[in-house]
């Protein structure tokens, strides 16, 4: 019996008695209603939010078919609202001003702060007034390049309050990447911070931002203001490592701090403005600008598989309804929960499930500045215990990284508050799923493997706690409003069991509306391949019970001797071996098979890479998938080339597999030096 049918995890966790959706029957009814009558379904939900003016035109209008004209999606035509008002004022007016919005937890465990809804609203109004005074108006783009601090949330909501458009650039990007994104968006203001400690490392944000601003001005982009949060004087610097080696931070302390221990920044009085000075002089009241529901809220750049990044643009009304509803149902959010999403706000997961989704629900969240392994490998679990977190959301890459340290760092903490554990970002292999469930969740939680994309705005395929019996590794079923189809190469629909392109037949409220400044690219990337469908670029399989298994990007698919294989499938078999912590599989051209498998494996602590292990791993894949899937090459990988959001850059691994050093652009990797190391470790016979 295949693994997936052998293991069905009942949703009988702590949430089952009170969940918003408590049975598969209820899920099916709600899902059917959301497709049959979107206006009734989302119209009912929209009543919970404040709309200054009601819908005047069509509730939903769209075209998904390039042969019938321009692609467009419009929800709630003519209605007016403000998402910042719905995130903050609505709750404060309802008497929840004193409720905690965020528990801020610093990089160092000694640094912590509490922010209520009332305080957040005042701070947001002050910053909104600072922006207005600089002439920022409706439709203007504001770039944000910040660490995970409360001012980041304040900045994005202040931008939204005055009808401007935020473009957040993850604080790990280089000056070049920041400049590219600012140029593309023609941003007139930048908001940043002096610097941040991430684990023992210093990231000198202002210095990088200064370089980016130079690049922008060389290309005639006039930036009116660089608003700078002073953060370094409020936080604890890393201590020297206990083993006597100088922590990376010690070097930074010498170069970036003066004799009195103050952090040094270069200052250009023509553009630089200290946040604390400007904000303390500003009024804490600011009327929201009532916006059309289809006005842009933000753009967020995602790397296209080739070429320049795309500014994925979302609009206000649909995104608001969708992030609020997915947050409520996928995590089964209830008043009193403490929610912790480890994603950085610089990624879509942070936009939708650190800021907007939780605040729209009036939730209390943990906002974490640091990394999972600093100052020790139990940091996540320590935070969960400290704040009694009930809903936790992280990525498979973090889970696998922490699994490497075994169960002991988890077991040290009381995690009994946990009820729902979420996963996002890539397919989660059953090994990691089960560890998450058994070790972190003590076999008494709901796991939600949420499939979605920057482009989808929110979860599109996900189990619902309390309703969906889960199969480890499957994202299960479509969310409300989502109409899933699988297509073969010719665009024929695969009904029932089968594998193909994962596409959606119609828009849900949170789908992106365009690529900023390039609607044609939007149409070609997502709609040209199959007329009438939004194409995710991922492959998926539907099993005999109707469960959806996302197999990874289509370009990660390989064809070995005519058998279609997904990299995820192979990787998950390799990771089942106790000596393997993480694995990545790519295709390498093969004269007889067409393509063969070339695998990279990272070992768990204390294991050595030897012939015996290679033979065992080949056998493992053979026995899990079939003889045709047996890898031709397996090589040791001290680390994998990952982007800063944790995605394996398989394009680079494919080059290594064929011995080609023409790696292309690897600047977006978290650690570009790993590429050279991997090249050197290629097996001789390859
Ligand atoms: C939210 C986010 C999107 C791509 C997507 C897919 C992969 C995300 C997944 C998953 C399998 C999941 N992906 N979640 N694959 N199961 N639960 O990650 O957005 O950065 O745009 O990436 O990530 O390949 O197409 P984004």
From TrEMBL:
In the UniProt record, does the keyword ATP-binding occur? yes
Q: Which residues form the AMP-binding enzyme C-terminal domain?
A: 569-647
PROSITE patterns cross-referenced by the UniProt entry: AMP_BINDING
Which keywords annotate this record?
A: ATP-binding, Ligase, Nucleotide-binding
The UniProt record lists the EC number as 6.2.1.1
Provide the GO MF annotations for this entry.
acetate-CoA ligase activity; ATP binding
List where the protein spans the membrane: none
One Gene Ontology term of the biological-process aspect is: acetyl-CoA biosynthetic process
Acetyl-coenzyme A synthetase N-terminal domain location, by residue? Answer: 27-87
Question: Which parts of the sequence belong to the AMP-dependent synthetase/ligase domain?
Answer: 93-514
Among CDD domains, the record links this protein to: ACS
Q: What class of enzyme is it?
A: ligase
- Matches recorded under PANTHER family: ACETYL-COENZYME A SYNTHETASE (PTHR24095)
Q: Give the NCBIfam families listed for this entry.
A: PRK00174.1 (NF001208)
Write out the similarity annotation.
Answer: Belongs to the ATP-dependent AMP-binding enzyme family.
What protein am I looking at?
acetate--CoA ligase
Print the organism lineage. Answer: Eukaryota, Metazoa, Ecdysozoa, Arthropoda, Crustacea
């Amino acid at each position: 019996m295949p693994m997936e049918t052998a293991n069905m995890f009942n949703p009988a966790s702590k949430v089952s008695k009170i969940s918003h959706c408590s049975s598969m029957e209820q899920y099916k009814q709600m899902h059917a209603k959301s497709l049959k009558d979107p206006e009734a379904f989302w119209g009912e939900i929209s009543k919970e939010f404040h709309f200054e003016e009601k819908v005047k035109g069509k509730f939903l209008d769209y075209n998904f078919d390039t042969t019938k004209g321009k692609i467009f999606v419009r929800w709630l035509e003519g209605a007016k609202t403000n998402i910042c008002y719905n995130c903050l004022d609505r709750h404060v007016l309802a008497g929840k001003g004193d409720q905690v919005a965020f528990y801020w937890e610093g990089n160092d465990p000694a640094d912590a702060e509490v922010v209520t809804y009332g305080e957040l609203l005042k701070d947001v109004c002050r910053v909104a007034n600072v922006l207005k005074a600089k002439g920022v108006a409706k439709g203007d783009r504001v770039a944000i390049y910040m660490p995970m601090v409360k001012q980041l949330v304040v900045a994005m909501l202040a931008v939204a309050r005055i009808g401007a458009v935020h473009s957040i650039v993850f604080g790990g990007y280089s000056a070049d990447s920041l400049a590219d994104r600012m140029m593309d968006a023609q941003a007139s203001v930048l908001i940043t911070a002096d610097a941040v400690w991430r684990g023992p490392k210093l990231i000198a944000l202002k210095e990088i931002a200064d370089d980016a601003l130079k690049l922008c001005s060389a290309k005639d982009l006039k930036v009116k203001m660089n608003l700078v949060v002073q953060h370094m004087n409020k936080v604890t610097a890393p201590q020297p490592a206990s083993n006597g080696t100088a922590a990376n931070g010690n070097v930074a302390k010498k170069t970036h701090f003066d004799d009195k221990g103050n952090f040094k920044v270069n200052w250009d009085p023509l553009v630089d403005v200290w946040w604390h000075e400007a904000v303390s002089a500003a009024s804490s009241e600011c009327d929201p600008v009532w916006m059309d529901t289809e006005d842009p809220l933000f753009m967020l750049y995602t790397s296209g598989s080739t070429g320049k990044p795309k500014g994925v643009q979302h609009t206000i009304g649909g995104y608001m309804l969708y992030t609020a509803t997915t947050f409520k149902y996928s995590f089964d959010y209830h008043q009193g929960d403490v929610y912790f999403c480890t994603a950085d706000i610089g990624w879509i997961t942070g936009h939708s499930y650190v800021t907007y989704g939780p605040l729209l629900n009036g939730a209390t969240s943990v906002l974490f500045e640091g990394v999972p392994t600093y100052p020790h490998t139990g940091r996540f679990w320590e935070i969960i215990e400290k704040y009694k977190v009930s809903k936790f959301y992280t990525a498979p890459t973090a889970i696998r990284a922490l699994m490497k340290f075994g169960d002991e760092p988890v077991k040290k903490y009381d995690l009994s508050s946990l009820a729902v554990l979420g996963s996002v970002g890539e397919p989660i292999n059953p090994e990691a799923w089960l560890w998450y469930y058994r070790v972190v969740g003590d076999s008494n939680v709901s796991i939600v493997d949420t499939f979605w994309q920057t482009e989808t705005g929110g979860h599109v395929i996900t189990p619902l706690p309390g309703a969906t019996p889960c199969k480890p590794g499957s994202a299960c079923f479509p969310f409300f409003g989502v109409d899933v189809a699988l297509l073969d190469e010719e665009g024929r629909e695969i009904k029932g069991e089968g594998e193909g392109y994962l596409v959606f037949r119609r828009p849900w409220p949170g789908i992106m509306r365009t690529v900023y400044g390039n609607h044609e690219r939007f149409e070609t990337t997502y709609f040209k391949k199959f007329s009438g469908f939004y194409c995710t670029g991922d492959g998926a399989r539907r099993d005999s019970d109707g469960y959806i298994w996302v197999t990874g990007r289509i370009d990660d698919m390989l064809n070995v001797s005519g058998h279609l294989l997904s990299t995820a499938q192979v990787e998950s078999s390799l990771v089942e071996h106790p000596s393997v912590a993480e694995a990545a599989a790519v295709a390498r051209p093969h004269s007889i098979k067409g393509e063969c498998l070339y695998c990279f494996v990272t070992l768990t602590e204390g294991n050595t890479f030897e012939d015996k292990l290679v033979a065992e791993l080949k056998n493992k894949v053979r026995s899990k998938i079939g003889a045709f899937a047996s890898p031709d090459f397996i090589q040791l990988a001290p680390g994998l080339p990952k982007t800063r959001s944790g995605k394996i850059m398989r394009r680079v691994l494919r080059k290594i597999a064929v011995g080609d050093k023409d790696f292309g652009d690897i600047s977006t990797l978290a650690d570009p030096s790993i590429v050279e190391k991997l090249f050197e470790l290629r097996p001789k016979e390859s």
